[in-house]
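ARCHIVE CARD
SHELF: 3
SLOT: left
DATA:
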Amino acid sequence: MTEERDYIYLKGTEELGEVIDALKEIQAKEIIIVVPRNTKCFLNSTNISILRSEINKLRKKIYIDSDDERINSLARANGLDIFLSDYGPDEATKIVTDILPPQKSKPVVKNIKNYDQAVNKNKKNNKNLTLVGIFIILIILGGYFILVKYLAYFNLNIILKTEKQPIEETITLSANVVKPDLENLIFPAEYIEIIKNHSIRQKASGLKSGSNSLRGKVKFINKDLENSISLVPGTRIQTGEGNIYRTLERVNLEKGGNQEVTIFAEKNDPKYYLTDLNTTFTIPGLKGSSWENKIEVKILEPITGGEGSVRIVSLDDITDGKLNLEKQISEILKQELKIKYSNYIFPEDLGIFDFKIVNVSHNVGQQADEIIFTGIGTLKTIGIKENDLKEYLKDIISKQNLRQDINFKIVNLKINSVTINDNFNFLKNKEMTVSLSGEVEVKGDIDVKKLTAEIAGQDVKGVKNYLDKYSSIEKAELLIFPPWLNKLPLDISKINVKIK
């Protein structure tokens, strides 16, 4: 005859396969597995899931009996029944006293007959006491269940350390590569060349005693609406009487445009006085050309003169004018670079600057109120996009710290200066070696999922010892409610870790 209930006593060293084989050998419809504390095969969620699957195939009622709460929690989580969970304290005591300790290394099967009769007799003799006990236990368990399941919390608040570190790196900027090279510290850059023409006017500072030359103002008018023309300083204009006057400056006439200029007489003679504002002029230099009748010259003020000193061009005027022009063109090139490439970073001394004088309106000793200087400047440099360079530096820093097994996040990075170390091959190879100086702000980094899994099931002291291993943690606070729960749950979903 098949026994109604049997027990399996485990020693604690069995493999899961041995337990399953023992279950298959027993013919009873109900089986209680007595599991000692720290039985390894019952502390693995995967093993419990396999055991449940095998139990479903046997179609038997299987109970788990253990005083190890971890084993009971895993069993409940996987749908297995816990022995005595449906009985009162007196009934449980009666049943537990019949359980014998294990005597063999393999699972031991012990039959208990007439189990139902014993339980029923006990129920009849202690009915009232049992009902009261069950009611009290249910209230306690219910309250405990509500408190732990719905009101309990396990919060771990962590503040990570933040610190600033200097950046000092030497890299090569090259216009010949398209991708950054972390090993050789080469970064792709853009070769930039800007050319600018510019003119300035400078007052003549030299003085010469004698009669002031006859001078006055006229207006040059370009009647050609499709073409422009430029006339050099000293261009001759002639009256109907044949008197010659010359310009003191270059005349630049845009199509349909005009320009007022100062003229002076070739001779300091009263015959060259002009008071008639309707006087007309011709330009001998344009005679016979297509421009002969396209440029009109009108007098704007009487041409007169007197005794005294006249201004002439000095050597200092030429020297100062060239220096001022070079300085202005340099500033113009820098401004255009800043505006056109606003999101770029350039070396502090930029690169190579070339300057050349194109024209000076007067020579030393010539009479003139002012001198016009015209020049051309060229700037050749290498630029890098600021955000791309910052990402490259972050990669360099991350790689260096990865080798040292340091976990952190880069919060902010600032580049203070880019200084050229070597631009010997700049014109030939379009690359230069530079030193970068700056500052990086870093913050410790922690894998929250890994940390949560490691502290699950540990008591408060165990959590503290584990957190002490992280040098990146500045402060940690563990909040548990209700306070008598001195241990974190195995279920990581109930543990809330916040990183600040």
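SLOT: right
DATA:
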Amino acid sequence: MKTRTRIILKSLTLSTALVTMAGLTSSGCHVLGGVQPAASAVGGGACAADFSAKMNSLQASVDGLAKVSAEIRGDVFLACQNIANDLGADGVPAVKPASATDDDMKTACNLAKGAIDAQVSGGVKITLAVEPGYCEVAADAQLSCEAKCDVSGGCDPGGVEVRCEPGQLAGECTAECSGQCRAEANVDVACEGSCQGTCTGECSGTCAAEDGNGGCAGACDGTCKGTCSGTCEIDAGAKVACNGTCKGECSVDFTAPSCEGALTPPKCDIDADCEAGCDGQAKFEAECVPPRVAVAVDGSASAKLASTLETNLPAIVSVAGTRGKLVLSATGNVANAFGDAVTELANLPGCLLVFAGDFAGQVATSVEASASVSVSVSASASVAGSAKAG
């Protein structure tokens, strides 16, 4: 709420500046509506290259925020709509995901949660086995953006291998892997540790299902020694050969590394607001793989309960968890940086003429998109919580 109030107040500053700009445009100066060259000499003078770089970074980030906010809202709405309809709820909004509003999404998710709760209240037990999803941030976009933030050209932002948060670097490891080994393309990975998926082999703990020979062939609550269909959390201090994707450390350089966390700040000194825009681009443009969910139900469950949860919970769990948290971690910084830029813009007549044409609208867009992401995460967490509580 504080962030939203802050941005709205700063947008009023921009509106005041636009009144001033109106006098300039009446004298024949043309107002440009988008991102323009770094030093356009118009009306009140030139727009400095460093401010233009910051504005380019922030506008690209807000565009990314608006896009991912709509995608997340549509994904959560569709999943909740499907669950609610499949379980016979009344009053489910009959709109397409691309047209769904935040209110449509909240209504659909409340109905989905209510339908799941009704099943559980009727004596149905729901057991979930979740193989976690993941997100790869758009590191190349962030590094390229940061290089442009330093208009002197002296900043080398470094590579993903150096900048990725500790333990979050992932890729193919041709030697020994420590951390996590994740199955890819439905090929199980060798595991000696905690398995988030189906453990085949020995389970030192409780196994949800056994094969005909007494070995584990299901979720293992303990240490799995054998193969894992999802992600194997390798025992501390151990190093193994990973025939899937290694996340953590590899005894040699990773092949085609990616970062599944945030990039740490660059060592060179660049404008903080420009950096916030770059960080936002990386997180809003991240490529995310949703989790896989296996559902087992006991009791007099609806015939569609297991199938609709298996089909629709992955999108909901992703937004409630990895994807939603990643996006939310950047929305506040981008909104604040945008507010700071609005205040600065009001005192830069040359930049005002370059950027004000669509910047005021983007301020409103950033506030609305940030709020929508929060609503989506809250709604998805509520539905996921009902399914897990069953």
